[in-house]
Amino acid sequence: MKRSKSSRQWLDRHFNDEYVKKAQKAGYRSRSAFKLLEIQEKDEIIRPGMRVVDLGASPGGWSQIARNLVGEKGQVLALDILPMDPIAGVDFIQGDFREPLPLQEMRDLLVGEPVDLVISDMAPNVTGMASVDQPRAIYLCELALDFAQQVLKPGGDFVAKVFQGEGFDEYLRVLRSAFGRVVCRKPSASRAKSREIYLVAGNFKIVYRTNR
Questions:
Q1: Is 21 a catalytic site residue?
Q2: Per-domain residue ranges for the chain?
Q3: What is the pLDDT of residues 27-76, one digit of tens each?
Q4: Regarding the domain with residue range 30-204, which homologous superfamily does it belong to in the CATH classification?
Q5: Over the range 77-114, which residues count as b (16 or more CB within 10 Å of their CB) and which as e?
Q6: Catalytic residue, candidates 2, 73, 153, 161
């Protein structure tokens, strides 16, 4: 099937992208690995021996970085609606984060023990209509925060990709009420035209447990 002009342009941009080339050279599964690496460099969110949950993990770029940093004594658990090729030392669940069954599978893997860090690079399938895409994106961020509040240990950390727009200010307010420190990051690997930013929250201060 013949590709559309916009599809060809996207492919050209993708394969000429500096971070795509760097990811291929370094053996990372996605260019987004460099986003987490820059956040790590600035905020030191991942340390050896930590338990980390990676939401929206596929194809595995963030899980690769997290697994390397937590080391053999750490643990990385990943979840995505899309399949992900295995990564040594990463427990992966394929399922829709919005549904109860995958979440229960994740809780089973956690065996009631809290985690040190929840990272979320989740984003909805975009339609190109902001009135549709933005609420979907904020909804996923809200679900990720709700999950983090259920599983994080006191003082734990949370990182989420958020798109600036309607609902962002309120989400930031809620995040600041739950964590002692919240900063915004726009990694160099994040495309300049993208509205995405990453909120890095530390020192979780609310012990909050509910089951959706």
A1: no
A2: 30-204
A3: 889 899 999 999 999 999 999 999 999 999 999 999 999 999 999 999 99
A4: Vaccinia Virus protein VP39 (3.40.50.150)
A5: bbbbeeebeebeebbbbebebeeeebbebbeeebeeee
A6: 161
SS3 3: coil
Q: Which residues pair with 179 in a beta bridge?
A: 204
Query: Which pTM was predicted?
Result: 0.88
3-class DSSP string for 51-93: EEEEECCCCCHHHHHHHHHHCCCCEEEEEECCCCCCCCCEEEE
| Strand, coil or helix: 100 | helix
Query: Where are the strands (E) in the chain, listed by range?
Result: 51-55, 75-80, 90-94, 115-120, 152-163, 179-185, 196-204
Per-residue pLDDT of 10-25, as tens digits, reads 344 554 678 788 888 8
Compute the distance between CA of residue 163 and CA of residue 142 in angstroms, rounded to an integer.
Answer: 12
